[in-house]
């Protein structure tokens, strides 16, 4: 699994930027921009800073509805107003030169012709920097915005997703790379021998083609996948070039890494051409204690009502009667029919970090996924270990608050990673495929 | 119908920029950029030049398939590869400050939640410069790219379009303008009293809402309509703020103008809040003869095979047997069951301009709509007459070739219109609504 170049295995870093912070308290943090998630001037500053830090890509999650929660919790969410990914990334393509631009798009509630076309257009506008995060749409509320009462079933979503991928990639290959001759003298604009009409007819989709746009600069925009279920992993193994995931810890990450790379090999693919980038909250400070204190302060900004609901879900038991300022009453927690692993994880976390019920609740209400909280050196150590142990090929960095949390990563952590020789000092190519070390796909229909 | 300001009635000018020229020979014209329709660097230069000329808007038509023609004709078309409107306009929003950005979007082959969201996002990204050209999709080939064998029926398309408009405008009003309080102390991001859930259920559409983006800067992006049929005109009268049309001549334009403004009045609207902007090819030169010669040269670049097919359609009779270099053999034209008005128009044109069969065919194969061909003075005279006679509120300018044809309009015609006091010397506002003199719609659900 060594890189083709003779240097050590390199980290890839993408920035999770929709929302600008996944932490629900982020907008309240002292000094943070409260409107950062919906302020174009700020977003331009962030993406330029990320490009200065040589990040592989700027990544936008997407939801086809406001978040699925009661209005009392929703009213506290800074994600409720967000830019739509294609429009924002197209705008940002004009204020940057190298950084990749990854948009999430649903295969459940959109049409392959539209999706193929928009990604091709974004790839041309950005000079080959587009990526498509294929999702089947997590939030069931989305269905109601698209004429349905119920979310499409999980298995049906994934079956359509697989076919959708075939149609989109087929449409991208409508024209050979050299189809456009633009011969003024003869008046021939393109060579009709170099046009392929897809004529797709499958169980879920019927799409004639051709696409009305030239083949993307990258051949195909980079394919990203974030599904975690069995069909999600299989889709990733067959199609994805980048996998976003959220493993609990390094051991779980190693298993997932081996599983997905193994599935890719079994599907006849080169596992090096699939990069696994777990999402990780990163909080950088002068000392580990200071970083931990920032995290506790950030967590404390999560409203207790929504926090305690999240803790109850994680425990599989109602936590609303516990003393908020006492320790977790381990003996009083009823047995759960839900996930025992999850309940045990909560108990372990409470004990390891000595958290009160309130702090524990706020952790779950804020951001409870993988986190690197420490100094540039301690975080670089951890990231290097993940990389060396094949637990990851890099990370999808979640910022705690902006701008400071992002600036700290770029100004302090990135130079440390560069000093260790595990992260680029400059971009070597111009396209996102080049940043990620991925080959440009051949056109399926033309040599 | 006087403007509210005490100056004379003002022209509005939008630029038809997808394709950059509607004339099929444009890319072959000497000195023209052959790839202009799909070259971002050129498009940036054009939009900046249009902004220098204080144009109201940059307009993109849209098609959800390659053009509906045999491949022998298609291979000569410079429109076959084009940017997708939302991505291109979002990119261009970052290299301009004032000019409006009008995208065409179909109500037949897209979803109202997606359309509402993208226009809201573009309006925010551009600081209030977005417009939506509502079309029901002209090209029947589009159906085959969206799972259907046949195009949706005309009446069904327009019924859905009307309901689609209600849903989109309802979604834009999901949040009151002042919904986002972002109160760090209390942790309340938005006031839930200022959120409206649409819960739309109609004959064609079921959409719950709310939209996951703040109300657009303009309240609603400007609504544009280009349908010419009876239901098309009615939809325009009820909903449109700008109407694109293609009347044959000034008399036909006056009738259309009176008809649509009358329908708007009957629908309870202020007819001043609906601007009628016919599409017009504009060729500016030092003399009328030189301008006409340029047009003939441009027409001569249209391939004869596709040209003669277009002439046959216009005549309602097969013209392929006629001597290409002789005059139109008027006595040999069989009677037609198709449009007699159209046939008589062709005969009149041939006689008025003394065109050979070839030249006539190339006119129909190139661009046969309304045209202003002359000097800055002669064209300004004509435009002023249209304006004064209530035949138009301005024009959707179609360029003959780029860059020269566009530069001539900005550098020569615009100053002449400004000297006459019928076109702005500078933008007075920042939003497209302000350029067009249109009010900002009130939120339907909040005072
Ligand atoms: C880093 C990351 C980003 C994700 N982004 C999105 C997103 O933007 N939109 C979405 O609907 N789901 C998103 N998901 C959820 C996945 O698409 C998927 O629905 C979820 O992981 C559950 O997996 P499954 O559907 O395969 O069971 C994301 C997941 C991860 C780990
Ligand atoms: C200036 C102008 C621009 C138009 N742009 C488009 C377009 O971009 N996409 C499209 O499908 N139709 C476009 N049309 C066609 C109209 O939407 C409509 O289909 C056509 O005028 C026929 O009218 P009807 O459908 O009401 O009979 C345009 C028409 C005009 C006059």
TrEMBL record, chains A, B:
InterPro entries: Diverse_substr_monoxygenases, Luciferase-like_dom, Luciferase-like_sf, NTA_MOA. The keyword Oxidoreductase applies. Residues 32-389 form the Luciferase-like domain. The keyword Signal does not apply. Keywords: Flavoprotein, FMN, Monooxygenase, Oxidoreductase. GO terms for molecular function: monooxygenase activity; oxidoreductase activity, acting on paired donors, with incorporation or reduction of molecular oxygen. It comes from the Eukaryota. It holds the Pfam family Bac_luciferase. Belongs to the NtaA/SnaA/DszA monooxygenase family. PANTHER family: ALKANESULFONATE MONOOXYGENASE-RELATED, C2H2 FINGER DOMAIN TRANSCRIPTION FACTOR (EUROFUNG)-RELATED. This is Alkanesulfonate monooxygenase.
